[in-house]
Design goal:
Length: 148
């Protein structure tokens, strides 16, 4: 079946042509003793149609143009989305709930930096104190330049 509501269609039962899926659907119910679901199942349904791609439960028939839903519900749709986005991988916490500092830490961790605050410098070392002093000076200068 051609996709789109307003693409020409042909009734497989009687070979009559129609301007749209809607006219074919009206024809099926008025002329042939078939519902659109029965027609779809008899002539157009493929083995993967009507079965949830996640849990293999039967899905709902939508209409002649769309066929069946691809998944049975929101939980299966979310499961498939999470798998497609690789959201179950380590470090993914859901972008809405994660703070910017946590996002930065995750990014730095992925590239080999242990913590965004010390960049691998031991907090008890003199290098840490030097780096903190430099950071504080830069913050003070930036603040002064920005706010006067």
């Amino acid at each position: 079946m051609a996709k789109g509501l307003y693409t020409p269609q042909i009734c497989i039962e009687c070979s009559k042509s129609f301007k749209s899926v809607l006219s074919l659907a009206r024809h099926l119910t008025q002329t042939h003793p078939l519902t659109t679901k029965q027609y779809f199942d008899k002539h157009l349904k493929s083995p993967e149609d009507g079965v949830c791609s996640n849990c293999q439960v039967q899905t709902t028939f939508l209409n002649l143009g769309s066929g069946y839903k691809k998944v049975c519900g929101h939980s299966c749709a979310a499961t498939i989305f999470r798998a497609e986005q690789n959201m179950d991988s380590p470090g993914w916490k859901g972008r809405v709930q994660i703070t910017p500092i946590e996002q930065l830490n995750l990014h730095l961790e992925r590239i080999g930096v242990k913590d965004c605050m010390n960049f691998g410098i031991d907090p008890g070392s003199s290098a840490w104190n030097t780096s903190q002093t430099a950071i504080n000076k830069n913050l003070a200068q930036t603040f002064e330049m920005t706010y006067g």
